[in-house]
Design goal:
mainly alpha, 6% strand, Serine Threonine Protein Phosphatase 5, Tetratricopeptide repeat, 266 residues
Length: 266
């Protein structure tokens, strides 16, 4: 698997070159997923489950719809369960998942997914109160799930303000102020936020927060950032080039002056 995994990034492009049909692509994606799972690469396997589900657009073709729905349910639960997954919007965009909103059997799972896409601890606690025991029945750990939604809420809070008070964070995350630093450090460790802690002022300065939904607005922001970086690099390169030319001119003038002095001595 160590040899194979680096080449998997090219598979989607290769399927176009091979000219295989949609059904064959699905079987290929499921095979890759199963092999990854068998080799303990659960996070990579989950990504291929999402790829598999993304091949269903507007209908389930001849596939067994209940089997596809079960795959979608498993993908949602794994994303919530896995500690390193903090973005869920790609799941919400899947046709197989969108059907859950009007599906009485899976409507609650869809509601829970929406909370993890862009909602906060308040919404999660309200969901728990209205659906007692559901989280456990889905095979999820209630405390671990609560911790993840708290980190996501911290990301949302950090994306709206650069400076946050301990009291503000404690209120949003439903924790004691004495626990704020622990959660902020955990958020930094999990790459949910980049921040500095000021214990004296009791504030957190956020320099970056994980975008929970990566939409057109985020792509535009990324494009603007890259454009700014490019412009700044061009300025730096021009400055270096100007310095290099000035240095070359100074060396030339110095050589000419030395030559004149030597000629004068002769």
């Amino acid at each position: 698997m160590d040899v194979i995994v680096p080449h998997l990034k090219d598979v989607s492009q290769k399927t176009k070159e091979w000219g295989i049909n949609n059904k064959q692509i699905r079987e290929l994606y499921k095979t890759i997923r199963n092999l990854l799972k068998e080799n303990g690469r659960t996070l990579d396997a989950q990504k291929w489950t999402v790829k598999y589900l993304s091949t269903f657009e507007n209908n389930f073709d001849s596939e067994d719809s209940s089997a596809v729905q079960q795959e979608a349910v498993q993908a949602i639960l794994e994303a919530i369960k896995f500690p390193n997954v903090y973005q869920f919007d790609s799941l919400l965009d899947l046709y197989a998942v969108k059907q859950f909103e009007s599906n009485s059997q899976h409507a609650k799972i869809f509601q829970l997914l929406k909370i993890f896409v862009n909602d906060t601890v308040d919404a999660y606690n309200a969901f728990l109160a209205a659906n007692s025991g559901l989280v456990q029945s889905l095979g999820l750990n209630e405390q671990e799930t609560l911790q993840k939604i708290r980190l996501l809420s911290l990301a949302t809070l950090g994306s709206t303000q650069n400076e946050l008070s301990y009291s503000q964070i404690a209120k949003t995350l439903h924790i004691e102020e004495s626990e704020v630093e622990v959660f902020v450090i955990l958020g930094i460790t999990e790459n949910v936020i980049a921040a500095k802690i000021d214990q004296l002022k009791g504030t957190i300065t956020v320099s970056r927060a994980l975008p929970r939904v990566f939409s057109r607005a985020q792509w535009q922001q990324l494009s603007d950032t890259l454009t700014t970086w490019k412009a700044n690099m061009n300025v730096i390169l021009k400055t270096l080039q100007d310095c290099k030319q000035q240095q070359a001119q100074q060396i030339l003038q110095l050589q000419q002056q030395q030559q004149l002095e030597q000629d004068g001595q002769h």
